[in-house]
Amino acid sequence: MASTESPTAAAAEADAADSKAVISKKAAKKEAAKAEKLRRQQEAAAAAAAAAAAAEEADPLATNYGDVPLVDLQSKAVSGRTWTPLARLEAELKDQSVLVRGRAHNVRAVGKNMTFLVLRERGYTVQCVLTVSLELVSRQMVKFASGLSRESIVDVEGVVTVPSSPIKGTTQQVEIQVRKIYCISRSAANLPINIEDASRSEAEFERAEQTGGQLVRVGQDTRLNYRVLDIRTPANLGIFCIQCQVSNKFKEFLLLEDFIEIHTPKLIAGSSEGGSAVFKLDYKGQPACLAQSPQHHKQMAICGDFGRVFEVGPVFRAEDSYTHRHLCEFTGLDVEMEIKEHYSEVMDIVDRLFVAMFDHLNQNCQKELDAIRRQYPFEPLKYLPKTLRLTFQEGVQMLQEAGIEIDLLGDLNTESERKLGQLVLEKYNTEFYMLHRYPLAVRPFYTMPCYDEPAYSNSFDVFIRGEGLPSLYSEEIISGAQRVHVPEFLSARAEACGINVSTISSYIDSFRYGSPPHGGFGVGLERVVMLFCALNNIRKTSLFPRDPQRLTP
Amino acid sequence: MASTESPTAAAAEADAADSKAVISKKAAKKEAAKAEKLRRQQEAAAAAAAAAAAAEEADPLATNYGDVPLVDLQSKAVSGRTWTPLARLEAELKDQSVLVRGRAHNVRAVGKNMTFLVLRERGYTVQCVLTVSLELVSRQMVKFASGLSRESIVDVEGVVTVPSSPIKGTTQQVEIQVRKIYCISRSAANLPINIEDASRSEAEFERAEQTGGQLVRVGQDTRLNYRVLDIRTPANLGIFCIQCQVSNKFKEFLLLEDFIEIHTPKLIAGSSEGGSAVFKLDYKGQPACLAQSPQHHKQMAICGDFGRVFEVGPVFRAEDSYTHRHLCEFTGLDVEMEIKEHYSEVMDIVDRLFVAMFDHLNQNCQKELDAIRRQYPFEPLKYLPKTLRLTFQEGVQMLQEAGIEIDLLGDLNTESERKLGQLVLEKYNTEFYMLHRYPLAVRPFYTMPCYDEPAYSNSFDVFIRGEGLPSLYSEEIISGAQRVHVPEFLSARAEACGINVSTISSYIDSFRYGSPPHGGFGVGLERVVMLFCALNNIRKTSLFPRDPQRLTP
Lengths: 553, 553
Known about the structure:
Chain A is an alpha+beta fold and 553 residues long. Chain A is 34% helix and 21% strand.
C-alpha cells in the first residue's frame, strides 16, 4: 500500500477532466468510451478502497499503536517496565530502546509516510519520528500519530538516535525513532489556550510585529481561567519550582537555626490585626474570622517557651486592592523569636536567611530561572553579602538631599519608596536593603517604641527591586519588629491605637505569665518570587490566585 | 551585714521574754530596769533598722540584681554578651562564668542566707544557688531572688560548679553560683496552671493516691484555656518538636523524590468534596467556602504538568464530631502524583515515606520522645521495613475467620477496624499496615473503580495503632486512591453519587486537555503525631485546637 495514491483522488481528477469536454457526434462516442472508462476507474477505485480497508484492518502492526482503552489504565497490571524521563534522554542512550510518556506538544505530518511528534514532559521536549517502514511502522500508524490532538498524553517506545545537526525547537538533542505509540488520554481538539502562544516572550511579539506577522496574545484572565493549561508553559513550571525552592530554603535555614515549625489556626474569634478588612464567617453559631496573619499565635508560641518559631501558611486579606501586588489569599512566611537585647537579632536572621536563599537560587536553580527568563527577561538581583541597613531617618535624609520632602513621622509612600530604592542602588549598588526605626505611628500597636525616641519604633521593612526592566523601582517585601511584651503597656498601646482591648484580651493575657522580649517578621512567598524574578504581577506567582474578582478555578 | 541577725527579730525575742515576767515590788524595780533596757534595745533596733535600710540603699552590690526597667529592654544597646543555652551547661564548663536566661521554674529560700532557683529553658533545667557572701552576694540579693514569682523570665550570671552528688530534679548536672540576677519579665504571682502540676504522669497520681497525698490535676479545658502555660511542659514541647519533625521529614522525603510543594487556595467557590459540612462565607458578594481538602486543586496541578506535588496546609471541616480524633481545623499533608500503571506506585511512596519518617523519629528524636513518654508512657510503634498490604477482601476474611460478619461492599466500622488491627498485630507483628481495594460505594466519587470488579476501587487506607496502652486498637490514618482522569467518566461518577455536576464543572473541565493517570493520598499531621505517640486526644497534638466548642485562644 505504501506509495499508492488515494483512489478517490484519481476519481476526482477524472471528474475534473470530464467537465472540460466539448460535446460533438464524434465526441459523443468518445464520451461514451470515456464514461465506460470512468465507470471502470470508479469500480477499480471502489475495489482498491475496499482492499485498503481490508488491509488496514489486517495491519500486522496494529497492536503497536492506538488509543489505550480505559480498562487498561485502571491499574490492571504492574508490567515492570520503566519510563525514561525526557530530561534523561541524552546522546549516551544512542541506539537504546526507551519508553517515554509525555504530552503531544506538536504534531507535524510530512506527506503520508512521516510524522514528527514533539513530546513534552515537565518543560523538557524531545522529537519523536515515525517513518513508514516494512515490519516496523505502518502507514496507519503514521496516520494515527499525525491525528493526535495537541496536549494528549502519549506513550512512545522507540530507539534513541542522535542527528548530525542540532535539533531546533526541542530541549533534548536526541530523537526517538518510534516503534510503538499509544494515546493514554486524548485532549479536546480545540484548546482555549495554545501552550506555544502562552509561552511567548514580549520580544517575540515585537519581532513578529516588525515582520508584519501576527501572533496570538493570551491575556491574563484567559490564562487564569484555564490555569491547568497556562501552568504548563516552561516559564510557569519554572516559577512554581522557584516558589517551592524559596519556601524550602526558608524552612531549611530556620530549622538549622533551632527554629520550630508551627501551625496556628486560621479560624479565629476576633480580627487578627485591627484595621484591615477581614473575611467573616459563622463558626457553629459564634462569629469568627479568617486570620490576617499568625501574629498573635506565633507570639503566644514564644510565650509558651518555643524560643524560635516559624510558619508557612495561608493568610487572608479581604482588602479591595486590585493592584499588581495584592491578593486576598497568599502564603505567609512568618518568623517569631526571643531576642536577648536588640531587634537587630531579628534583622540578622532576615539578612542571613535571604542572602542564603538568593545564593541558593542563583547557584542551584539556573535551569528554572532561565526558563522564566526566556519568557520574562530579568537581570539577576543585586544584593550584598551583608545586607545594607539604613535607619528611616537616614533614608529620609537621602530623599531630602535628592529634593524630596518627607514627613519625618509619617510613612513613605510608594513613590518615595521607589525613589529611595533608586538612590540606594546608585549609592550602594544593591536592590535589597533594610530600613529600620520607623515612626511608631505607622506601625501596628504591638510594635515596641524606641528606648530613646518614643515617636520611633524598633521596627524594620526590607525592600527589594520592583518589577519591570530597567528596575528602578523598589518595593517593601518584609516587615518586622520587636514586639511589646509587657501586658499593661500592650493594653495601653492598643487603646492608644483605637483598638477595643476586650476583643484581644486573650492575646494580652498571654504575656502575663512571664514573657521574654521577642520580635519577628513576615513576608509573602508570592512576593519574594515575583520580585526576585522581576515579574510584573503577583498573579503570576500564585498557583490559583484569589483577588476581589476571582474565586476560581 | 553578712551574718547579722535582723534587729526586729531581737526585739521580738525581748518581747517574748517580757511576757513571762511576774510582777512584784522587787520585780517592779527590776521591771523598770528591764523596760528601760527594752527601750534602749528598741532604740538600738530602730537605729539598726535605719542603718540597715541605709545600708540596703547603699548595698554596694545593688547593681548586681533587680528588675530590669522596660527602657533597658527596648533594644537600648548591643553589649556583645552571649547567653549560654541551658542545654549546654555541662561539667566541662566548670569554674567558668556564664550568662543564662530562663524561667524561674522553682524558687526555694533556705533561711535568710540562701536561695535555690531552678531555671528552665525549652525543657532544660539548671539549679542556681545564691549564698550570702561578702563582696559577692548580699542578703538583699538573696531576698530579691527568693521573691521572684514562678515563670518570671530571669537573667543569671554566675560560675559553673559541679556538685559531688547527682542533682535531683534538674536536667543539667551542674549548678550556677549566682553573681548577678536580673528579672526581665515578672510573671503574675497566681498562675492558673502550675507547670509542675501540668507535667505529671498518671503514675505520679497513682503513687500519690497510694500514699494518701493529693496532687492537683489540670483538666483538658483548663490546659487549652491557658495554652501559653500548658505548652511549657516538657511533654508538650516534645510533642510540638515531633510535629515539626514529622512535617519536615514529609517534605524532605518528597522533595528528594522529585515532588514539588504547592500552595492551593483555601477560599473556594464550591464545596471541595460532596457530603461533609463546610464552613461558608461571603467572598466579596459571592458565596464561598473553606476548602475541606486540597483534593481538586492538587489534581489540577497534576493536569498542569507538575508531575508530583505535595502540600502542607490547613483543612477545614465543619463537622459536629466531638471525638478524641476530630478537629474542625487541622494540618493536612497531601500528595498527588502521576502514576504510570498502578495505584501501587502511590502505596510505594506511602510505604517508603512513613517507614523513613518513623525510622527518623526513633533514631534522631529520642530526647523529645522520652520527654513525652515520661508524662504519657507509650511503647515504640511496631512497623515493618516493608509495610504490609492486605486487600479489603483479605481483611474481611480475617475478620470472618475471627467470627465477625462484615458487609463485603460496605465500610469497616470503628469496631471492626480495631479488631482487624488486633488480628494483624497478632499475625504479622505490625501496628502499621495498608488495606486496599475498598468497595467503590464507600469512597469519594473521583475514585477509580477496579478494572476487574467495578464494585471495588483502586483505593487504600493505612491503619496505625490507636491510642492507649495496651494498644489493641487500630485507627485509619491515611486515605488514598487512583483518581478518575477521564472527564466524561468523572461526570458520570459524580452524578451517580448524587453530586450536582454543574457545581464542579471547572474541576471536571480540567481533565479535558489531556490528563495523565494519577493518584494520591492525604493524612492529618496531628493524627500522625497522636498515634505515633499513642496519645489519647488529638487536642494534645494541635497547638491551638479548634473543635465545635472551641474557637480560642
